[in-house]
Amino acid sequence: MNIVALAGGVGGAKLADGLAQALPAENLTIIVNTGDDFEHWGLKVCPDLDTVCYTLAGLANPETGWGRADESWLAFENVSQLGGADWFRIGDRDLGTHLERTRRSRQGDKLSEITRDFCEAWGIAHSILPMSDDPIPTMVHTELGWLPFQEYFVRQRCQPRVSDFEYHNADIATPAPGVLEAIYEADLVVICPSNPWVSIDPILAVPGIRDALSSGKIIAVSPIVGGKALKGPAAKMYVELGIEPSAYAVAEHYVDCLAGMVIDSVDKDDVSRIQALGMTPFVTDTIMTTPADRQRLAEEVLQFGEEMISDKIE
Amino acid sequence: MNIVALAGGVGGAKLADGLAQALPAENLTIIVNTGDDFEHWGLKVCPDLDTVCYTLAGLANPETGWGRADESWLAFENVSQLGGADWFRIGDRDLGTHLERTRRSRQGDKLSEITRDFCEAWGIAHSILPMSDDPIPTMVHTELGWLPFQEYFVRQRCQPRVSDFEYHNADIATPAPGVLEAIYEADLVVICPSNPWVSIDPILAVPGIRDALSSGKIIAVSPIVGGKALKGPAAKMYVELGIEPSAYAVAEHYVDCLAGMVIDSVDKDDVSRIQALGMTPFVTDTIMTTPADRQRLAEEVLQFGEEMISDKIE
Q1: In the CATH hierarchy, which fold is given to the domain comprising A3-37+127-136+170-313?
Q2: CATH class of the domain defined by B3-136+170-313
């Protein structure tokens, strides 16, 4: 089976890593959100892309899930002492990634080319593609007005109430080379447990991607477990948008395209409501604490997807 | 007495530090070579300026004389692994300086303004001025053709034979704010033990600076001791230019402007030749191994300068 995974940051990266453990390189393409990319200290920073790459390369910080393991913060200390912006911390190892990406971007290389070369240097065999080479900054509408994503997420610590999202310039963007091809060739598309509005919807907003996703082959893993997000503001966003956060609410968010929905055992009461949406539910333990959890969940998700597809074909 | 010091990198920074230990902040201005500034990893790097600042702030690496103490190289390792330029190493702490300077330069701040703010942040009371806010890249003519200074100095490790120097765009540059004022108000100008061609001549090439230097008040400390440079390629350059490297040769290099010349005890045989140039020689131990050496030499240089000036006035 050819698999495409759509992923945002930490949660998405964990399942993507599990899929990479479970699948040969030629059978998996990971398409990553770049809506949270921004410029900081004059550098092009791509938080979700780096989290996915670092995780698959075994370079990620196991405590935080983002950033590099064995990291130090000496450049940050100095920038901070010199009066530079200190609301977003960049570690020393991580800094090398942004420096070299920025240099190559300035010389005209595309983000997808740079990412391919970085993955090769880090020994990542599986294909990791940014959703687009064009900037599509996610904007968050809050009680303070429209905020660029990192302003909302890091600087304001997700405090302001959200009311809307915009994927700026999505209408004039195109998918990165290989993205549509991978989706068309995929037998199964897995939406990783990432935030629906600020990790997955930005990917779906790139012209052509949603159309390429034939609804019979898409399954999602819920980022909401027991009414809470494992990481990040997803549950808080549901509440602020007037929706009760639940695995069912995630399924409903994707009602147009989803064929199957993977939810955690604690949410098994949502099964009938999800079935009522016309989706096949699958219940298992979805919390990935160890690398072994990632692989086990990935294998269950793949088996569920395979059975669901063959059921539909029969 | 008001003192101006002209300084390049490591040797110049040491004497500048000694002068800063010996003089109140209001009586010392250090004018620093910026001819070796260049762009690396997309960042504005000012090696001499940083060496002088780090030295005066007590932040310099005591082993190398340049760069930061307690430095790490994690960003460099990553840049190098990703295929970026690895012929010039930038440490993590040091990187913060270049990042914030580059950011401020891009927003339109002048190098002199940025340097003033950085000095304040690092607790440096004495005034450190770049020779100019305009880029004046030193070019080295070698058997390989014209090389930008850092290409010659670091990438080629000073191997190619030199035959000429050019201070590019010096003719259209202006001194940084405060430079000419400090020189006019100075009772004594001290040329620190720095390379004549690539540290001091670039300063003297900035329009207005040489004219402001009245010849009665300038003394130099020889960077050549016993026919050798304590650091860097000065002695090698003398040989390649067909001149025997010596304290006398340094005096002759500055024959147009120098009133006094400080040479090392091992070079005391040069005294009569230096006197024949019309200069007052002063012989002492000029090698600065410890911070105490710096202060001792600075105090001797100041006393010599003071006596020389009062002799001339009488």
Answers
A1: Rossmann fold (3.40.50)
A2: alpha beta
Alpha carbon distance A152, A230 (integer Å): 19
DSSP for A173-184, written as a single string? --BPTTHHHHHH
Smallest Cβ distance to B72: which of A42, A74, A117? A74
Q: What angle do CA A58, A60, A66 make, to 5 degrees?
A: 150
Compute CA B94 distance to the chain's CA centroid, rounded to the nearest angstrom: 19
Of B116, B261, B118, B117, the C-alpha closest to B196 is: B261
pLDDT tens digits for B153-199?
A: 999 999 999 999 999 999 999 999 999 999 999 999 999 999 999 99
Chain A contacts in chain B segment 14-43 (CB below 8 A): 41-43
Could you tell me what percentage of chain B is helix, strand and coil, using 3-state DSSP and rounding each to the nearest 5?
45, 20, 35
Residue of B54, B74, B105 to mutate for A, most A C-beta atoms under 10 A: B74
| DSSP 8-state symbol, B227 | T
B54 interfaces chain A, CB cutoff of 8 Å = no
Contact A79 B100 (CB under 8 A): yes
Q: Are B267 and B249 in contact (CB under 8 A)?
A: no
Quote the pTM value.
0.93
Cβ neighbours around B190 below 10 Å, total: 29
Q: Which residues sit opposite A28 in a β-bridge?
A: A3
Of A78, A84, A102, nearest to B93 by CB-CB distance is: A78
Comparing alpha-carbon positions, the chain A residue that sits nearest to B72 is A74
Read off the pLDDT of residues A11-31 as tens digits, 9 standing for 90 and up: 999 999 999 999 999 999 999
Angle between helices B92-106 and B111-121 (to 10 degrees): 140
